[in-house]
Each structure stands twice: as C-alpha cells, then as structure tokens.
Design a protein that fits this description.
By secondary structure, the protein is mostly helical. It contains 24 helices and four strands. The chain has a four-stranded antiparallel beta sheet with strand order 1-2-4-3. A hairpin with a 4-residue loop joins strand 1 and strand 2. Keywords: Membrane, Transmembrane, Transmembrane helix. It comes from Hymenolepis diminuta (Rat tapeworm).
Length: 724
C-alpha cells in the first residue's frame, strides 16, 4: 500500500496536474501568499527552537519547520478542493514543488548536522578521535535527494509535456490519468488512515505543550497570516475563490511521510505521529468552522439566527458522538479512578448533557421562539437544563486546573472527601445560578440574534460574569502550578552505560518541552468573547447591515457546543485498551501469512568458498544491497526483533536527547551467534545492512554499515529507530 501511495502521490498526480493546467489561469497571488506564510512560520519555528535550546536541538528545529510547511496537500487538501473549489485544486502541486525545492533542503541540512553532532558525542565517549564533520558529500547528498525527488521530476516533466501539447493532451492520456486520479483519492485516504492508526500512541505529558503550540499556530495564526498576505499580493485583482483557497489551504495537516523521516533520523517520531493523527482529526472541524465563517460574512442578517441554530445542532451531534466514544475509552481504560481524569469526565458529562439537550430540543420545536407564543412547561424545563449544564462546563474547566494544582502541590492523589466538595459545588452552584437568573430577569424572554440567549441582556451578564470568574481562576491555578515544585516526588536521574567505556557526564540540558504531570495543553475557557448589542425586532433585521460581531458570536457558539470533540482530540485516540487484543490477533495472522507468502526460512550457513588472505585468515567481504534484501529484515523483525531489543539495548544519555534503544555491534553479533541465527561475521553484516536499508536501525558512531571496518567494528554503536 505504501508503494502504491508513493507512486500515485509523487508521480501520477503531479504529472497529471501540471500536464493539464493552464498557466494563464493560475492565481499567483494565492500561491505566493500561501507559500510566503509557510516560509515565515517555518523560519520562526526553527529560530525559536534554536534560540530556546541554545542551538542544541537542531533535529527538533528541522522537524518543527517541516511540520509547519510539509503538509499533506495531496492526500487531504486536493480531494477537499476538488469538491469545494475545483478550479483551485491543481494549485496544490505548485505549492508542493516550491516547498520541496526551497524549504526541504534547509530541514535536511539541519537533520544532517544533528546526526553529525550526535556521532561526534558517541565517538568521544568511546575515547576515539572525533573526526566527524560535515563534508561536501553530505551537501551533494542533500542536493541529490531534492533534485531527484519523484515529485519534482514529475512536476518538471509535466510542465515540459504541457508546453508540447499546448495544454491539450491526447484523449487516451486524459482517460488514463482520470482513472488513476479516482484511484488516488481512495488509496491516499486509506494510507493516511493507516498511518494515523499506527502512529497513535497517546499524547504524552512531555509533548503536550509543544504539540498544542504547533496545532494552535496552524489552526489560528497561519490562516490569518496567509489571508493578510493575499490582500497585499492581490491588490486590485482579488478573487473570492482564491481568497477562500488561501485561507482554507493553511489548515492542511502534516504529511504522513514525515513519520518515516522522523523515525529514520530518530528525532521525536512520537511527536510527529501525534501531530499527524490529531491534526488530521481537527482538519475537518476547522475547515467546517472557517467555511461557515466565510459564508456568514456574505449571508444576510435576517437568516443569521437560523444559520446559527442549524450550526449549533450539527456541532452538538459531532460533540455528542465523539464525547460518548471518549467516555467509553475512559471506562475501558479504567481511568475513571484517576486524577485529573475524574474531573475531565465530569466536564465531559456536562458537555454531553448540553449537546443532548440541544439535539433533543431541536426534534420537537425550533430554538427560535416567538414572543407572542405561550411558554410551555416543556420549553421552560428544556432551557433551564440547558443553562445549568452550560454553567457546569464553565465551572468544571476551572475545577480541573484547581485539581491539578492541588495534586501537584501535595504530591499525592486528592482524597475522596476533597473531591466530594468539588462534586457538590459543581452540582449546586449551576442550579443556584440558573434560579437566580430566572428571578432577576423575572422570567421575561427577549428576542436576540442568538436563539440560545432567551433572557436577553440579563443572561449575557450572568454568562459573562461566570466566564470571567472561571477564566481568572483557571489562569491563576496554572500560574501557581508552574511555580510549584512537585511535592514529595523526586525521581533521581537514571544513569545508563552502554559499555564500560561509556562514562557520560550528566550536563544540564535545555529542553523545549517540560514534563508537567497531568498538564492539559490548552485552557478550555480561552474562546473569543462576543460583544453583543441589544437585539433588534425581527422585522428590522433584514435591513440592518451585517454585524462583524456575528463572526465572533459564531466562533463562541461553535466552541460551546463542540467541546466534546476537543476532549475527544485529547483522549479519544488512546484506544489501546480496546484495540490491543484485536491488534495482537491481527499481528499473529499477519506474521503467519507473511511467512507463508514469502517463504521465509531461517538463515542457513553459506557453504560457499571463503577467500583467504596470505596468512590464512578468512577475509570478510562487506555485503551489498543484493545480498541484503528486504526479506531478511522482515523475517528478523517478525520473529526476533522484540526479543533482541529487550536483551541487548541500553539507554545512552546525550546532551541533546536520550537514546533509549542503543546497542553495540559486538553485543548484536554475539546475540546472533549464540542463537545460531548467523554463523559468521559476513552474515551478521548482511543482516545489519538489511535492517538499515529497511529503516529498522541507524548508525550512531558510523554513517552507515557500508562504512564499517570488519576488523575494528566491534565498538560501533547503532540504534533501533522503529516506533514504540
């Protein structure tokens, strides 16, 4: 599947797009605005990473730059724009080619520099002369990877044939590529889902701050920056479709191929996997919100209330379904007894009640009411329950921050009696607020542009007051949390020795991501506050100008009813408790089928003639690619890789990171020989090269297995790089 995906993505689609596109119809302002915004955010991300880490985390800076720019334009954006804006869909391939030619060389250069630096550290620990440095061969390697990239070649050949055929290729070309285009969409989305399923490992507390910053920049800052740049580049030739393309294109999630790249260079592969999976899940909701905002700006004010009601009902459906799934994950994972998961579950339950009331209320009557109509008991109960659940969600957001702070300060789980106090306040205070609102407003309903504000100005004041109090409480708790050390919990640093020559000096290292136990990456109270004006009578709405505050109100309303999806994005992907038994069965079936299909057998002794040198000692020849095919690596990975990793690997602490699965070649050789998996050094080197070519290992003290000296390779250090 991966090979088919690469062929379709990197060859067929770019060639087809550039073969049929008309150069005079290209919206260059949209392309330059999108590309410039990505260049700026890439440089800002790299410089921020290098500045905070004092130029130590070169690899992480490169990965952050790629997460900002190398997005999944082909597998996600292209099918989406084929539906929304068909004329703008082929602009994706131009932006992708510019990214590969201009931005990827910088990332590759930083990754190679990071590899050289780590290799120099390893050689120093082995008491060897460190002669590792950047060479012209490395630069030529980067240029070779860029210029011979299949996407760039397909793009170049497509432009050449475009000029030859004058934008009108033969008919058989058109039918052939249309068939592949239809195949591409299903194949690309299936491979993307496969990568997301394999990369979901649960977001760790260490990567939450950095992950939330990257996703927030891509979801909030980049679309606004790209739109502003489009207005600058377009000047007097603005196009509505091109402007929408510029805005929505910036929401594209990270490319699935970045996972293999990060794993190959051993630079935060889990962070990249989490970014791909969560970014892909958040893409459609963000796309829906921004598209609704664009439609809202061109919609007449008279239909705004109906537009807002339908949006709230739809978002409530999404929140309810995803929230119920997350609730099942919590129950299956037995996290209902843990803190702060208990408070998160209470917050999620309040969100589910709010979404359920909105959905059930829309079945019978519309939320848009008539002042002349009589208020029934059902309407009164429905709105009272909705308002109480709304206040509950606000209060439990602050309670989560307070609970995390108390647990961090005490260093132990919060006692049951303390939790009971929060449960009582979380249940009684919303009821008191709702009753107080009804008394103060004298239960008089007022027509507002938002149908969920039925008590007019008084309800706005209550809502705004509760929001400000909870927001200040949450911010204060988080500030105190950052200033409070962990109580009675001190974990001594773990010393790791690869071999007895490895006596590493533990130096203080700067990290971009601090390990905050139980930290929730973004505050659920930080949404835009709408500033509402007194509502107008229904007959005057159609003549009133479009209010720009409606956009803020729409964003606020979407967040209110879509909070279940945000909880799902944080905790819903942690489904290991439910999928682990299924994955175990599937893994065994896959192993048996693969072994039977490929005819994999245990490596046997090679009975070939051994060349001898003058002194009679056997001469070991380095293996070639032909002798180290992928079947050897797959056979070893299926049967022995997990046991080998558990027995011969040891962690090594470097200044930039901790290598958790490092091993010495001598240990690997002895392990294979003792188990009779290999019978001589040549077979060991052949297996090692096969593992390297298939991205199972990478060299730490050497560039590659090709660079090994058979006579002095016993102390060479390697690393297993497959994902957890």
């Amino acid at each position: 599947m991966e090979k088919i995906y690469l062929i379709l993505t990197y060859i067929i689609f770019p060639f087809q797009a550039t073969l049929t596109i008309q150069l005079d119809l290209i919206q260059w302002p949209a392309i330059w605005a999108t590309f410039t915004s990505r260049v700026l955010m890439s440089f800002v991300g790299i410089l921020a990473c290098l500045s905070i880490s004092r130029a130590r985390l070169l690899g992480l800076g490169a990965i952050i730059g790629l997460l900002m720019t190398d997005t999944n334009d082909i597998a996600v954006i292209y099918p989406t724009f084929r539906i929304l804006y068909p004329l703008m869909a082929y602009h994706c391939c131009i932006i992708v080619a510019l990214q590969v030619l201009i931005l990827k060389p910088i990332a590759f250069l930083l990754l190679e520099m990071n590899t050289v630096r780590e290799r120099r550290m390893i050689l120093r620990t082995l008491n060897k002369t460190s002669s590792t440095h950047m060479t012209y061969r490395t630069l030529f390697k980067i240029i070779y990877q860029i210029l011979l990239d299949p996407l760039v070649l397909a793009f170049a050949f497509g432009l050449i044939f475009n000029a030859v055929f004058h934008h009108n290729p033969p008919e058989y070309f058109t039918h052939f590529f249309n068939t592949f285009s239809e195949t591409f969409v299903s194949c690309a989305l299936f491979y993307l889902g496969l990568v997301c399923a394999n990369s979901v490992t649960g977001v760790s507390a260490r990567s939450k701050p950095l992950l939330s910053i990257i996703l927030s920049i891509k979801a909030l800052l980049m679309p606004i920056l790209a739109t502003k740049l489009y207005h600058i580049f377009a000047k007097n030739s603005e196009n509505a479709s091109a402007e929408c393309f510029t805005l929505l294109y910036s929401l594209s999630p990270a490319n699935a191929n970045l996972l293999s790249l990060a794993s190959r260079y051993a630079v935060t592969p889990n962070l990249v996997g989490d970014n791909i999976s969560i970014g892909t899940f958040l893409f459609l909701p963000c796309l829906f919100i921004y598209q609704c905002v664009l439609d809202l700006l061109s919609t007449d004010a008279s239909v705004y209330a109906h537009f807002l009601e339908k949006t709230a009902v739809f978002v409530s459906w999404v929140s309810l379904i995803t929230g119920l799934w997350t609730r099942m994950v919590f129950m299956a994972g037995r996290k209902t007894r843990m803190m702060p998961h208990r408070f998160v579950i209470c917050y999620l339950d309040c969100t589910l009640v709010t979404a359920g009331i909105v959905i059930l209320g829309s079945f019978k009557d519309s939320w848009i009411f008539d002042l002349s109509a009589r208020v029934t008991l059902t309407d009164y109960i429905k709105f009272s329950f909705y308002l109480s659940a709304y206040f509950c969600t606000r209060m439990w957001t602050a309670f989560i921050c307070i609970g995390i702070f108390i647990q961090r300060k005490q260093g132990t789980i919060m006692p049951r009696r303390n939790r009971t106090v929060f449960y009582i306040f979380g249940l009684i205070v919303p009821i008191i607020l709702t009753v107080s609102l009804k008394i103060r407003s004298q239960d008089v309903r007022e027509v507002d542009v938002n149908p969920f504000y039925q008590n007019g100005r008084m309800q706005q004041e209550f809502t705004f007051t509760v929001l400000i109090i909870c927001l200040l409480t949450a911010i204060t708790s988080l500030i105190m949390l950052a200033c409070t050390p962990i109580g009675a919990q001190s974990q001594p640093p773990q010393s790791s020795h690869l071999i007895r020559n490895f006596n590493l000096n533990q130096s203080e290292t700067d990290s971009l991501t601090n390990n905050v136990d139980g930290f929730v990456e973004f505050d659920l109270e930080k949404e835009k506050l709408p500033t509402r004006e007194p509502s107008q009578p229904p007959e005057e709405k159609s003549d009133a100008p479009q209010d720009p505050n409606n956009v803020d109100e729409f964003m606020d309303q979407t967040f209110n009813f879509g909070q279940g999806f945000f909880v799902f994005a944080l905790y819903g992907s942690d489904v290991e408790c439910m999928t682990k038994p299924i994955m175990k069965i599937c893994s065994k079936m896959r192993e048996r089928v693969t072994i039977w299909f490929l005819g994999i057998k245990r490596l046997k002794r090679q009975h070939g003639d051994i060349e001898a040198e003058g002194d009679g000692t056997p001469k070991v020849n380095l293996p070639a690619r032909q002798t180290s095919n992928w079947r050897i690596a797959e056979s070893f990975a299926l049967r022995h890789l997990d046991i080998c990793v558990a027995e011969i690997t040891k962690p090594v602490v470097l200044k930039t990171r901790t290598v958790d699965r490092a091993f010495v070649f001598a240990d690997f050789r002895d392990w294979l020989l003792n188990r009779n998996l290999c019978y001589n050094l040549e077979e060991v080197l052949s297996l090692l090269l096969s593992l390297e070519l298939n991205d199972y290992i990478r060299g730490l003290s050497v560039n590659s297995v090709y660079a090994l000296d058979p006579e002095s390779c016993a102390e060479s250090v390697f690393e297993f790089i497959y994902l957890d």
